[in-house]
Structures are given as structure tokens and as C-alpha cells.
């Protein structure tokens, strides 16, 4: 096993600017690293990250979320295991797929996307990150829950501090304190709404959560509040970065953008390849329940394991020419890319596989279609620099574009 000395540290500015060269060195020369600052073992190879996520032998838990997110969200589905997790998942999963998604929530997705686009389509220029990506998914979640539109800006503020908490690998006390304040404010906001909604069930996601019952089990007010808080981060931040990512990748590969513009059936391919090439979530942690051997090294029981999705998804032993963005690659399965049978690791795999993957896909499909329709001649503006930011979650900082103005 290696120590991190000869490799750019995952907390260094150099790594934050461009982690991909460091990922390569890790995969090739130091596939298992003890990282002192985060007190965790880092794995980077596709086969190791896949092994940890699939957890076929019950060697890993998600107890890491007790300290990683419970202080800001309360206890969530991510921390549950076994039957308790299966029951909770069965309660919430139907809302994010099938007829609920198609009939109830697709109009919500389309309406929220259109509203944002209508605000800039006539101007001929926009920043697809600030004006669209950072707003769209969080507005969708708030609207799906049936919360007041007037509160979207407050939601955006909470969302920003929750994300900062999650990405606070260096342990900045101010970021931690802001995250904990958000927990209090969000609870004060949500509890009266949950109590009121239980009395007046509607057609929204919050009503579904209030009424859902599996084996006689219902979610408590605290459970619902924590789940909504998790949705802000899990459903907002990730899809925000995914939309930024798909446009960054397509705008820097104009021939692939043109192919997608002409054949919208390629959006799924472009999204799947974006999830592989520039995943929104670059690292996910686990806790070892027993001693585990990986890539020739040993992880003791009770240790934190940091799984580098961003590195594993560019493993040359899994993908040909892994540092090339290619929506036509034949070694990435697009059909299974949004299910637990996915062969990229961006949604993790196994029991905690992203429950919102199909919702994310619907948002990206609607978003890309509407933006391409409303913004003819879409191209990078002067000063366009799709540099990514973020270490835990990652996406383009800004995407200034120009296009031919169009009326709504
Ligand atoms: C491209 C967008 C998305 C990405 C990359 C993503 C990524 C992930 C990942 C990596 C996990 C696994 C965490 C772990 O195993 O520790 C996860 C779980 C989860 N995601 Fe997503 N996600 C996305 C969109 C969404 C959306 C739109 C929602 C909203 C419904 C959502 C809700 C969740 C929830 C609730 C879990 C926990 C599932 C469980 O513990 O069983 N995600 N997501």
C-alpha cells in the first residue's frame, strides 16, 4: 500500500484544478492509499470501486453518513441498511419512476425548465450554469414537493449551504456552522408544512411521502423533513452539475453537439457519457465492517473508505481511450446507464444506487431538448472556459454562451 506523498493530495489546489492526472497516477501506482487528513483509505480503480459499491459479501456499511451528512440533514435513507433500508426505499422509489414520474412530474419538469429559458432566450446570451443549471433541478424538487414558488430563493440558499457542508473535506468551521444553521431553519420551515399536508393531502410528492405505507410502516415528520433535506442536495446539486457537464462536453465537441441537435435520440448517450467522463459526484465513502483486501492491500475493520468515482470512470482497463469524450463509444451501455445495472459508477451501484436516476434523466432530456430548441446557433461566448470546480461534487464554474435570440 502507498502513502499519498508522491501524488497531488486530494485536498491540494493542484488537485482541485485538475484531478484527472492524479487519478491516473493513483490507479496505476497507488491504488490503495492511506490519507491522513481525511483519515480514510482511498481507492481509485474501477474494479475496486465497483466491488465496494456492490458489496456482495456484506463488508461495508454507510455509517460514514452519520458524520458526513446527519448533522445537516438528520438521519436519512443513506444511513439505513437491511430491511429498514428496503422498506424506506419501497416507500419513496415509486415517486421517482414510472407513472408518477411521467404523469405527475414531467409537466413540473417541463414548466420549470421553460420558465428559466424564457427569461433569457430573447437576449442572445446567457450563462448556462448561473441562469439555468443551478436553478432548474432545485426548483423542480421544490415544485414536486408542492412548496410555495415564492420560497424557491430560500431553497436555493439552503441548498448552497448544504452542498458546502458536504464538500467541506478540509473541515472549515464556518462552513460546518452554516450547515447546522440550515438544519434548524429547514426544520422550522418544514414541520408546519408537513403537519398541514397530512391534514390536506394533495397530488404532490410531499403528500405521497405523508401517506406512503409499506407493511404498516409510515414515515414520521422527522423522517420526511430529513428526506426532503436530502433531496435538496441529492436531487439538486447532482443534476445541476450533470446539466453543466453535458453542455460543457458538447460545446467543446461541436460535432457531437451538432449530432445531438439533429438526433435528439442521442441525448441519453450524451448524458451517459457525461456521467462517465465528468461525473457530478467524484467521491463516495463507505465504512469497512470487517478487514478487507483490495488491490493487494488490506483495509482494517472500522475504517473509512473513499471511493473515487471520477478516477474509476476513467480506468483504461475498463474503457478504451478513457480520457476522450465520445458519445458514440461502444464500451458504455446506454440502455442500462440509468438503472442499477449501469456500467459507469456515477450513480454508485448496489443497495443505495441513486433512487433519482430516472428523474435526473428526465430532467436532462427535457432540459437539453428545450435549450436546443430555444437557442438556435448555440455556441461558446467570448471568455468561455469550461473549467470545473469542486472536489467532492464537481462541474463547470460557468458556461457563457451566445445564440440567435428567439421569442417564447
Ligand atoms: C445526475 C444526477 C445524479 C447523480 C450523479 C446522483 C448520484 C448519486 C449517488 C452516487 C448515490 C449513491 C450514494 C451512496 O451510495 O452512498 C445517490 C443516491 C441517492 N440519490 Fe442520487 N444522483 C443524481 C440525481 C438524483 C435525483 C434527481 C434525486 C432526487 C430524487 C436523487 C436522490 C437520491 C437519493 C434519495 C439517494 C439515496 C438512495 C439510497 O440510499 O437508497 N439523486 N445518488
Automatic annotation (TrEMBL):
Keyword annotations from UniProtKB, A to Z: Heme, Iron, Metal-binding, Monooxygenase, Oxidoreductase
Coiled coil: none
GO molecular function (one): iron ion binding
Pfam families (alphabetical): p450
Domain of life: Bacteria
Family to which this protein belongs: Belongs to the cytochrome P450 family.
Protein name per its UniProtKB record: Cytochrome P450
Native source organism of the sequence: Streptomyces echinoruber
Amino acid at each position: 500500500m502507498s502513502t499519498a506523498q508522491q501524488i497531488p493530495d486530494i485536498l491540494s489546489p493542484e488537485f482541485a484544478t485538475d484531478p484527472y492526472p492524479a487519478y491516473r497516477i493513483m490507479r496505476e501506482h497507488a491504488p490503495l492509499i492511506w490519507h491522513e487528513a481525511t483519515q480514510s483509505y482511498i481507492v481509485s480503480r474501477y474494479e475496486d470501486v465497483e466491488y465496494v459499491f456492490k458489496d456482495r459479501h456484506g463488508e461495508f456499511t454507510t455509517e460514514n453518513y452519520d458524520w458526513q451528512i446527519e448533522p445537516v440533514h438528520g438521519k436519512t435513507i443513506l444511513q439505513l441498511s437491511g430491511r429498514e433500508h428496503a422498506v424506506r426505499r419501497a416507500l419513496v422509489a415509486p415517486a421517482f419512476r414510472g407513472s408518477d414520474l411521467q404523469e405527475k412530474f414531467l409537466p413540473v419538469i417541463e414548466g420549470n425548465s421553460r420558465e428559466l429559458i424564457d427569461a433569457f432566450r430573447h437576449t442572445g446570451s446567457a450563462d448556462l450554469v448561473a441562469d439555468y443549471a443551478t436553478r432548474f433541478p432545485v426548483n423542480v424538487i421544490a415544485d414536486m414537493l408542492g412548496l410555495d414558488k415564492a420560497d424557491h430563493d430560500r431553497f436555493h440558499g439552503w441548498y448552497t449551504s448544504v452542498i458546502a457542508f458536504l464538500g467541506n473535506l478540509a473541515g472549515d468551521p464556518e462552513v460546518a456552522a452554516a450547515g447546522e444553521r440550515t438544519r434548524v431553519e429547514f426544520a422550522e420551515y418544514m414541520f408546519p408544512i408537513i403537519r398541514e399536508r397530512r391534514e390536506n393531502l394533495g397530488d404532490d410528492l410531499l403528500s405521497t411521502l405523508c401517506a406512503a405505507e409499506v407493511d404498516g410502516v409510515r414515515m414520521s415528520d422527522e423522517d420526511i423533513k430529513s428526506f426532503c433535506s436530502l433531496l435538496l442536495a441529492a436531487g439538486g446539486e447532482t443534476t445541476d452539475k450533470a446539466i453543466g457537464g453535458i453542455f460543457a462536453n458538447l460545446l467543446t465537441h461541436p460535432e457531437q453537439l451538432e449530432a445531438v441537435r439533429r438526433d435528439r435520440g442521442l441525448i441519453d448517450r450524451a448524458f451517459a457519457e457525461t456521467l462517465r467522463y465528468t461525473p457530478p459526484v467524484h467521491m463516495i465513502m463507505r465504512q469497512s465492517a470487517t478487514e478487507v483486501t483490495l488491490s493487494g492491500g488490506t483495509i482494517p475493520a472500522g475504517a473509512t473508505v473513499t471511493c473515487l468515482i471520477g478516477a474509476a470512470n476513467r480506468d483504461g482497463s475498463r474503457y478504451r481511450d478513457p480520457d476522450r469524450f465520445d458519445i458514440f463509444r461502444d464500451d458504455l451501455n446506454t440502455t442500462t446507464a440509468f438503472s442499477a445495472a449501469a456500467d459507469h459508477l456515477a450513480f454508485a451501484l448496489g443497495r443505495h444506487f441513486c433512487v433519482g436516476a430516472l428523474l435526473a434523466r428526465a430532467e436532462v432530456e427535457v432540459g437539453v431538448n428545450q435549450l436546443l430548441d430555444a437557442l438556435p446557433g448555440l455556441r461558446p461566448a467570448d471568455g468561455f472556459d469550461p473549467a470545473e470546480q469542486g472536489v467532492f461534487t464537481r462541474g463547470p464554474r460557468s458556461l457563457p454562451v451566445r445564440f440567435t435570440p428567439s421569442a417564447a
